[in-house]
Amino acid sequence: MEYLTMEGCRRLIGKDFSEGATKMKLDVFEVVEPKFPATFRQSKDVYETMQAFAKSDREMFFIVFLNTKNRMLDYVVHTVGTIDSSAVYARDVIRSAVIHNASSIIICHNHPSGDPEPSACDKEITKALIAAFEIVGIRILDHVIIGDGRFFSFADAGFVEDYKSQAIGILGRINL
Q1: Closest residue by Cα to residue 68 from 40, 95, 90
Q2: 60 domain-assigned
């Protein structure tokens, strides 16, 4: 599986882009390159960096790879789904994080409906990813859902810490 990255887009169309926000029109959505280097201190920083993806007509799942200082190393559009879902598998997200040598990640996706409230599936995949990442020692700092003019942060709502505590409780009973 190959991921859509800005470097991949550059190779695909054979052009180099100037600094700053760069746009390239694709059939499904518009790709806007976030300004590098981005440092994330709060969920609002993630939203402001990735909010251009709110305009997509399909659900898109992103992985933002961070170094130890929470500076963005890179990001990928991991999957592009349908109007109300996107297939996400823990093994593929872990593989991407390891390949990018990330010490932590932020996951995010858009809701084409514009309403950033998490669905039951959003909560379940977040819980599963946090548990899986606990095993490999890469932190998931947040899952941000991008809506129309607003966002939802799993970290701000306390879910990330709750899910991590649950995962540690389960993993503590397993002799790894």
Answers
A1: 40
A2: yes
Q: Which of 130, 116, 117, 95 is nearest to 3 (CA)?
A: 95
pTM: 0.78
**Of 38, 60, 162, which is closest to residue 107 (Cα–Cα)?**
60
Give the pLDDT confidence score for residue 104 in this predicted structure: 97
**Domain range for residue 67?**
6-172
Please give the sequence-ordered ranges of beta strands (E in DSSP) within 26-172, or none if there are none.
30-32, 60-66, 72-80, 104-110, 139-146, 151-153
Which domain CATH number covers 43?
A: 3.40.140.10
- CB of 93 within 8 A of CB of 61? no
Given a cut of 50, the residues of the chain with pLDDT beneath it are 1-3, 9, 12-29
Residue 57 in domain: yes
Instruction: Note the pLDDT of residue 133.
Output: 96
**What pLDDT is attached to residue 90?**
95
The count of structural domains within the chain is 1
Distance CA 117, CA 170 (A): 27
Strands 139-146 and 104-110: what pairing?
A: parallel
In a domain, 1, yes or no: no
What pLDDT shows up at residue 33? 59
- Find out whether 69 and 113 touch, Cβ atoms under 8 Å: no
R_g (Cα) of the chain, nearest Å: 16
